[in-house]
């Protein structure tokens, strides 16, 4: 099957700044992707290129198998909800729904109205009178009710409280189960969305760092705690993504198989083993600097 999104050696430069360098990945239909990375990594630039709002400097970028630029066939099936979504200020919430209804071919007005109710959004209130969180909720309603085969959310939760964010995650999962599509979530709240994500793409300094199934990734790193000597012995032949010491003890976060022979070795050395969350793993992987010093925990 053709991928929904295909990037082949894509580079994007803004003048002297190379925001995205030589990135290749594909996104398949009916999957929820996490597009993750630190501030300035290049995520928004990638999403803008997929949504035809920026041109790559070089490389090939296809959406639904076609170049997306000024291509209605692609853009009618794509919904991009940005962090600071701009709507005309004299519009009210209902006007935004009407416009969305004219743009997206799978738009479901009934569903949009039920979401408006869930988020407690006043239909007749003007956009300029909405609170920051309400504005984010309006973007989320558009994104969900568009039922676009490719729906991209770029940190859509600015100003949203924890209850509203949980509502977003729950509604997304429910509606995705009933109407599978490709969803891209770019977020820094990795632990919060971890249960939603099926595939993880991590961008670091403009380059692709990880492109992996979320379940595979979850089992790929773990933490061991124990006396420094035992940790050294255990970690010596493994890829260590983080180390810390406290007194005579140390922790090491290593890439390995939590359920295979690594576990037996750790147990034989008397080390305590703990799983590592997706967020911890990505923080460690993207926080690594060459020649970084070991962290003192106390
Ligand atoms: N219009 C622009 N002109 C010059 N440089 C830019 C422009 N837009 C982005 N950049 C630079 O490109 C790099 C990638 O930015 P981008 O916004 O894609 O990162 P991001 O991963 O989305 O970050 P964040 O998580 O903070 O939103 C950064 O160094 C940024 O300063």
TrEMBL record:
<dbReference type="Pfam" id="PF00005">
    <property type="entry name" value="ABC_tran"/>
</dbReference>
<keyword id="KW-0067">ATP-binding</keyword>
<keyword id="KW-0547">Nucleotide-binding</keyword>
<dbReference type="InterPro" id="IPR027417">
    <property type="entry name" value="P-loop_NTPase"/>
</dbReference>
<dbReference type="GO" id="GO:0005524">
    <property type="term" value="F:ATP binding"/>
</dbReference>
<keyword id="KW-0813">Transport</keyword>
<feature type="domain" description="ABC transporter">
    <location>
        <begin position="5"/>
        <end position="230"/>
    </location>
</feature>
<dbReference type="InterPro" id="IPR003593">
    <property type="entry name" value="AAA+_ATPase"/>
</dbReference>
<protein>
    <submittedName>
        <fullName>ABC transporter ATP-binding protein</fullName>
    </submittedName>
</protein>
<dbReference type="InterPro" id="IPR051782">
    <property type="entry name" value="ABC_Transporter_VariousFunc"/>
</dbReference>
<dbReference type="InterPro" id="IPR003439">
    <property type="entry name" value="ABC_transporter-like_ATP-bd"/>
</dbReference>
